[in-house]
Amino acid sequence: MKKQLLAMIIGLNITAVAQAATPSMEEMWQMIQQQQGEIATLKQQLRKNDARIQETEVIAEATISAVEQISMAPSASSKTTFGGYGELHYNSLDRDDSSASKDEMDFHRFVMFTGHQFSDRVRFFSELEVEHSVAGDDQPGEVELEQAYIEWDLASQHSAKAGLFLLPIGIINETHEPNTFYGTERNNVEKNIIPATWWEGGAAIKGEISEGLSYDAAIHSGLFLDAGEYKPRDGRQKVGKARADDFAFTGRLKYTAIPGLEIAASVQVQQDIRQGEGEAIGGTLFETHVAWQRDDFQLRALYARWDFDSAINNIAVGADEQTGFYLEPSYRISDKIGLFARYSEYDNLAGSATNTAVEQVDIGLNYWLHPNVVFKIDYQNQDTPTETGYDGFNMGVGYSF
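The structure assignment produced for this chain is given below.
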């Protein structure tokens, strides 16, 4: 009896628990509706995600297409290049006869390069310069176009150019950015005898004869020395409505087959530096130089000579032959600091005196803050036959990019 009663109690408890755990029909309907709502929300979210994925795919495909088009057809700006250089100078010099001094600061040059690649074989290059910071009436400076030419490849290792270009003479005439040479000021020989920087208008070809042996040949406008003038630097016309009655011819051979060594020789011939005014006077310039780099030591040496055909003193007495040379050893103490010394001598002065040469000794250092940014300081001692040479210090900062 007790066992039957216990079984009945347990059975009643199980039934009660089951009835308590089982939801009513209304509760079950509410649960089903809630689950259907959640399913609808999930479907809507999935549809939004699918739309976003499709939109992302469209944007990605458009981006890839644009990149492919850019790589296949580069924009004009990607083929145009810009660069330039500049240099600020401070000079503190006294004349040998104590009659004058020079203490001045000058932003000597501000230059901008612009180039454009038309095709794999045709290109353009230009160089626009402002000298002495301010140009205009009664101002010390000038605005000059030093280069503007079209160059094209004729064949492998051979090219031609036409327009306004620097002549292939000397060491610094074509490469004269301030971080590429020693000394605040450019050397006197290339400045006064060659005379750098020297550009003309015409046409030229260049190429490689064999490995390490190259040539340059050009026909171009030439000097014009008016009556009473005899210095080549005064005869530069800078291709500004230049007299072109008589053209000049320039050629150069350069040897660079040995690493660190450059040997070159240039010749220029002009039949009439008077450009048809009065009796014709021919002029021939010969220049040769060596630039040798071995480890941290460098040596530059250059000789230049002008010969003018003047049998009846159409050129000032003693100026029918003008010469100059310099020697410049230098040593790179580190990547940042280099020391140099230079001895130069040039004679482009007129007169019947036996000695009309100008001698100058320069010593100093360059400090490269960056390979393309340089600070310079040097001391110069200049001697002239008339005791008008200047001695003192020069300092400068220059850059190129």
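Interim note for the steering committee: Confidence is low (pLDDT under 50) at residues 1-22, 66-74. The first strand starts at residue 80 and ends at 95.
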